[in-house]
Specification:
alpha/beta, 23% strand, TIM Barrel, disordered N terminus, 2 domains, 28% helix, Urease, subunit C, domain 1
């Protein structure tokens, strides 16, 4: 096999975390090396030296002192990237911290994450961006990229200093958790994002339509007697963002798509050549609003789990490329925020440590989504949206690598999670496929216990 080379003069990573000490030389032997970005899918060896991929080929000789890892039956893929997580620090360290969230990411196979700005205080200025970046460098085993807020305090009124936050290290702008209801403010935020060269990530929710709702508006909300949130609350907001993307020329990324009609709106935008991308989360791909039966607050998320028809249309959007990215929307909460009446419970579930297993079990193994497409949606595509280095395996590139055992059977046990939170609707579920080793810049930051 001819060695694969690439331009090694890429921009240095702006993400915090990923301590590069004690990297040494590692030989990954006889794994299925799958790199959607480079079109590689074959059994090969990967030689890593001093944090960089030195070569990929067959029969690479082991060097004295090198660690050799036999990957027979396992996948070696580009380090997974989760572009939508909530790490809660600063302000809600009782739910999650940069350190515990970073460890959860490593345990889930992620080598990089992008954390949202809805902390307390909000990451809405350069000083807060620098705090997150520096804290991650010190405490997170994986790279942490910072997303800055678009409006001060996420109030949707005054625009933040977007250029300053970019210069401090922000890789995107978002009021995630809230929708900028004022279209004029949203337009100005998008215009400044375009000038700054940053994507704008939109949490699409018409809060006049969703106000007071607890779950998807449909059959099950009626049966359970809970106030519903119509799919239109998302879709009309997506339509506005598409219009503003056309008006401003900004790169607009639609977060956590849950509704089938939203997929159609994004599809039409792409057909018109607009710079619109979209993501969904594993729970929208495999669960429906029926999961709320029994009033399980771990299934209370925003946007809510939708109908089976919506789920099927979201899956179709992922398959045809309308939806670019799979991201967890990891939203940790402490027990007292979930162990309450359904209407009083917080929205959100954790997903860093279950994403790979859920996608492998319910989409890849069933032949619904090809493996290479699922990996692309968690590697090269989020890297492209954020404009960060990563998402590919090639000689000369930093050695961010995820090892997946596609046949490993395991049961979801939140008590064993690295995350500081336990709020998952997948508790007790048996999954097949798991990240068993995670390498960041050549350093093994996670290995599955034997």
């Amino acid at each position: 096999m001819t060695m694969r080379n690439t331009d090694s003069h890429a921009e240095p990573s702006r993400g915090g975390g990923g301590n590069n000490s004690n990297r040494g030389t590692v030989l990954l032997r006889n794994g299925r090396v799958l790199d959607p970005a480079g079109g590689l899918d074959e059994t090969a060896d990967v030689l890593v030296r001093d944090g960089t991929i030195e070569s990929i080929g067959k029969g690479i000789a082991a060097e004295p002192g090198a660690r050799v890892m036999d990957l027979t039956g396992k996948l070696a893929v580009p380090g997974l990237i989760d572009m939508h997580v909530h790490l809660r620090e600063p302000g809600r360290e009782d739910e999650e911290t940069i350190q515990s969230g970073g460890r959860a990411a490593a345990a889930g196979g992620f080598t990089a994450v992008a954390c949202m700005a809805n902390t307390r205080p909000v990451v809405d200025n350069a000083g807060m961006v620098r705090f997150v970046v520096e804290a991650a460098k010190k405490r997170s085993p994986v790279r942490v990229f910072c997303v800055g807020a678009g409006t001060v305090g996420l109030k949707g009124e005054a625009m933040t200093e977007i250029m300053d936050m970019r210069d401090a290290g922000a890789v995107a702008i978002s009021d995630d958790g809230k929708f900028i209801q004022n279209s004029e403010v949203a337009r100005r935020v998008m215009e400044y994002c375009r000038m700054a060269g940053l994507p704008f990530i939109s949490h699409c929710e018409d809060q006049y339509l969703s106000a007071g709702g607890d779950m998807h508006e449909g059959y099950w909300s009626t049966v359970l007697g809970l106030k519903g949130i119509p799919a239109a609350a998302e879709t009309v907001a997506v339509a506005r963002e598409v219009s503003l993307a056309e008006l401003t020329g900004a790169r607009v990324h639609i977060a956590h798509v849950s509704a089938g009609e939203s997929v159609d709106v994004v599809r039409r935008a792409k057909e018109r050549g607009l710079t619109v991308t979209a993501e969904t989360a594993p729970h929208y791909l495999v669960l429906t609003d029926r999961a709320v039966c029994g009033y399980d607050t771990n299934a209370k998320v925003n946007p809510p789990l939708r109908s089976e028809e919506d789920r099927e249309r979201v899956v179709a959007g992922l398959k045809d490329g309308t939806i670019d990215v799979i991201a967890s929307d990891h939203a940790p909460h402490c027990e007292e925020e979930k162990d309450v009446e359904f209407a009083a419970a917080a929205f959100g579930l954790i997903g860093l440590e279950t994403s790979v297993g859920v996608i492998m079990t319910f989409l890849v193994r069933k032949g619904i989504v090809p493996l290479k497409d699922a990996i692309a949606a968690m590697t090269v595509k989020p890297a492209a949206v954020l404009g960060i280095d990563g998402g590919t395996l090639a000689a000369g590139r930093r050695a961010d690598i995820t090892i997946i055992d596609p046949e490993l059977e395991w049961e979801v046990d939140p008590s064993r999670f690295a995350s500081g939170a336990r709020n998952t609707p997948f508790r007790g579920m048996k999954l097949t496929g798991k990240a068993v080793a995670t390498m960041v810049a050549g350093k093994l930051v996670y290995e599955e216990p034997h």
